[in-house]
Amino acid sequence: MKNSLIKREHDSIFQTYKRLPIVVDHAEGARITDVEGNVYLDFLGGIAVNALGHSHPKIIEAINNQIKKYIHLSNYFYQEPQVLLAEKLKSISGYDRVFFSNSGTEANEGAIKLARRWGYDKEKTHIIGFTGGFHGRTYGTLSLMDKPLYKEKMGPFLPNMRMLQYNNIQALIGEINDFTCAIIIEFIQGEGGITSAENEFIDKIFDLKKKFGFLVIADEIQCGTGRTGKFFGFNHYDVSPDIVTMAKGIGGGLPLGAILAKEELAKVWEKGMHGTTYGGNALACTTGLVVLEELDNGLMTHVSETGHYFTNMLKRIQKEFPTLIYEVRGIGLMQGLLLSFDANELVNALLEKKIITNAASGKVLRLVPPLIITKDDVNELIDTLRQCLNNFNK
Ligand code: PLP
Question: Ligand 1 in contact with 247 (CB < 6 A)?
Answer without folding.
Answer: yes
